[in-house]
Write a structure and sequence with these properties.
The complex is a heterodimer of chains A (about 450) and B (about 260). Helix content of chain A is about 70%, strand content about 0%. Chain A is built from 17 helices and two strands. The radius of gyration of chain A is 29 Å and the shape is flat. The chains are: A mainly alpha (about 450), B alpha/beta (about 260).
């Protein structure tokens, strides 16, 4: 019998790992104290983190919430025996001005003859949460709520800007008209012709019939909210409104642009590439300046194209171009086998895109898509350069008040905190979504 | 050479070749850019035939069967599948694709759908089969490939052999009249090759028209009724398996066989 001969007679059972390799001890050994150098770094870092947090706490934990002005804050600090530049935070400004930071100059009933209208944006954002629920949590919320999500884009502008309810109804009817025409033509002609005629008829409806219908219905049954001018919009309400519109529209437009860029049709492809490259090559501030000043030159005299509407269009176009490239990345990451699998089963182009390609490409692109969303939301602060009162621009207005002249950290800190809450929320949601859509390795 | 270690006799009672023509390829040519990849291909496949296409890599055998459902476009000649001509007409292409099943080397299952959804997707959207009926049929075919218990899992949770059997079931759910296999066992571990070949043999026993690109010469010998040898984009030799393996005519075929059967 030779030495290399070996036969196992019993299989080994599974044993527990050593105690120092698992649990809290194992985690600390692996992540904090894996060697003398790393241990020193851990301790030094801990020292600085604690120093920073203590300093921040010392500054922030002061009873200045009810102060009515900066000198009053200074009196409080003197009583506490605190002196110097970093004596503490003057939170009175936030307590007094936070409604303004949230709603800008939206009518709050302080002016003669006006009523507090701020319930409207509040209701609009509560309803926004309801409308988003079936989209964000499709597995936990009743699917019927999606009809409300479909109606929300018409409810939100009516709540925010006011006016007669028949305007959004007439606009919504335009979609119905387009869809009915499309469905009706589909029986007799090809899909493309039906689509084109459907879109054209909807546009004709909006151009000629919609305003007639809404003014006619308004004179019969006047259901209207107090109109609010766009110039009165401001604060986080403005940021969120622009952010929601840009985010909501840039995703579908981005998908269409990404597909167009991959298309075999030369003209479609060229148009998409030109659009994407042009928008990506121009700073957002330039586009906003164009929206606020230059656009008027090209309009017929006398037309007043709402400033926020112009901002919506520019920010949406800007976000769409980036979105298209993010989605193109997801499309490129899909193996060609997925296209071939779909083709070999006889699915047509749109079925393959909708059922096979897009669900996977969008899933791959979730981190990039959400990064773009977060970027767009933060970029809404740029509207301050064209004179809209976003939160950052409002800080100037607040500091122009003699009571609060000289405050910087409290205001910017509060704004930064609110932005962080929204952006961090989006980021966490994207991670939740990635985990939910995880279906094992490919 | 990997002979099939079959633990049962192959039932040849239903393996009948009819006179009805399933596929007719005449003077077909294809180029990748300026590279002439398929040259003057002429081939007639009758209903019920089991054809194995063999050849060295780069000989155009995969390209040939991928032309049959228009995954690749041919530039000259005609291809008739079930009487329908493959042209640029998208309607014809979609019709042929729904009649011709295809199994790929890398399975190409849809990783974001469950096994059952993979199998019901095309019947529901292409054939407009009611969902319930499509699911019943899918379960029938999953039982046939012996993995009904995996119906609610995702492809990523299955082994390669199981995935390939799902891919076969997915194609069968469209009730195809012809099945194309593009190296179905090349990406599999040796232990899993047999389970996929068993499934393919069962399919052959039921009289399915099959075109297989494969290196499994044991399968070719026992199941095929015709073996086609391709080299440099041309059909070099075709014959019945016994004659093909025992008495190859061309020098190129002899060299190929000696290399793959030599050890």
């Amino acid at each position: 019998m030779s030495d290399i001969s070996f036969v196992r007679t019993e299989m080994l059972p599974q044993k527990d790992p050593p105690a120092s390799a698992v649990g809290v001890v194992g985690w600390m050994r692996a992540n904090l104290f894996s060697g003398w150098f790393n241990s020193i770094l851990t301790l030094v870092a801990l020292y600085f983190v604690i120093q920073l947090l203590m300093g921040l706490f010392h500054w922030a934990w002061v009873p200045t919430w009810s102060a009515a002005s900066l000198p009053e804050c200074r009196d409080i600090f003197e009583q506490l025996g605190r002196t110097g530049h970093n004596a503490g935070a003057c939170w009175g400004v936030i307590a007094e001005r936070w409604p303004q930071l949230l709603f800008g100059f939206y009518p709050n009933g302080t002016e003669e003859g006006t009523v507090d209208q701020r319930w409207r944006p509040i209701l609009a954002f509560v309803l926004l949460a309801v409308a988003l629920a079936p989209i964000l949590y499709s597995d936990r919320v009743s699917g019927k709520l999606i009809y409300f999500s479909g109606a929300y884009p018409f409810i939100m502008p009516w709540l925010l800007w006011g006016g007669t309810i028949w305007t959004p109804v007439a606009v919504a009817l335009g979609f119905v008209v387009g869809f009915v025409v499309y469905k009706w033509l589909l029986k007799s002609t090809s899909e493309l012709i039906a689509l084109i005629v459907g879109v054209v008829s909807a546009v004709l409806w909006w151009m000629f019939a919609a305003s007639l219908l809404s003014s006619g219905l308004a004179s019969i049954m006047p259901l209207a909210l107090e109109p609010v001018q766009s110039r009165a919009f401001g604060g986080f309400m403005l940021s969120i409104t622009i952010g929601v519109v840009a985010i909501g529209l840039s995703l579908p437009i981005g998908i269409v642009l990404a597909l167009g860029r991959q298309s075999d049709l030369l003209i479609v492809k060229t148009l998409c590439v030109c659009f994407i490259e042009f928008i990506r090559g121009v700073p957002l501030i330039t586009l906003l300046f164009v929206a606020s000043t230059l656009l008027n030159i090209f309009m017929p005299p006398g037309t007043n194209f709402d400033i926020i509407m112009r901002v919506f269009i520019m920010v949406t176009l800007f976000a769409s171009a980036y979105m298209a490239e993010v989605i193109r990345g997801g499309l490129a990451a899909l193996p060609t086998g997925q296209y071939e699998g779909a083709d070999s089963l006889g699915l047509n182009y749109w079925q393959a895109q909708r059922l096979i390609i897009m669900p996977q490409a969008l899933k791959i692109s979730i981190p990039g898509i959400v990064s773009t969303f977060i970027g767009v939301f933060k970029d809404t602060t740029l509207v301050s350069v064209i004179g809209l009162f976003d939160p950052l621009n409002l800080t100037n207005a607040i500091r122009a008040d003699a009571d609060w002249n000289g405050l910087v950290w409290e205001l910017y800190g509060f704004i930064a905190f609110l932005f962080f809450v929204f952006c961090f929320g989006m980021s966490r949601y994207s991670m939740y979504l990635e985990r939910k859509l995880q279906t094992g390795h490919r | 050479m990997s002979e099939l270690a079959l633990d049962r006799q192959i039932d040849r009672s239903k393996m009948k070749v009819s006179d009805e023509v399933a596929i007719q390829i005449s003077d077909m040519n294809k180029w990748y850019g300026s590279f002439h990849v398929l040259r003057d291909i002429n081939l007639t496949v009758n209903q019920g035939e089991r054809i194995v296409i063999a050849g060295p890599s780069g000989s155009g055998k995969s390209t040939l069967i991928r032309c049959l459902n228009a995954l690749e476009e041919h530039q000259a000649g005609n291809i008739l599948v079930d009487g329908t001509e493959l042209s640029n007409d998208l309607k014809n292409i979609d019709k042929i694709r729904s009649e011709v099943g295809m199994v790929f080397q890398h399975f190409n299952l849809f990783p974001h759908l469950t096994i059952l959804e993979n199998c019901t997707l095309a019947p529901i959207w292409v054939r407009k089969t009611p969902k319930k009926e499509a699911e019943e049929r899918a379960m029938h075919f999953l039982e046939k490939v012996k993995i009904p218990e995996q119906a609610d899992k995702y492809p990523g949770q299955l082994s390669g052999g199981q995935q390939q059997r799902v891919a076969i079931a997915r194609s069968l759910c469209m009730m195809p009249r012809i099945m194309l296999f593009d190296e179905p066992t090349s990406a599999l571990d040796p232990e899993m090759i047999k389970e996929v070949l068993d499934t393919m043999i069962e399919l052959a026993e039921e009289g399915m028209t099959m075109l297989c690109v494969t290196h499994e010469m044991g399968f070719a010998r026992q199941v095929a009724n015709r073996v086609i040898f391709m080299d440099a984009g041309q059909i070099v030799e075709q014959n019945e398996p016994e004659e093909f393996f025992n008495n190859p005519q061309s020098e190129r075929t002899k060299l190929f066989l000696s290399q793959i059967l030599g050890h």
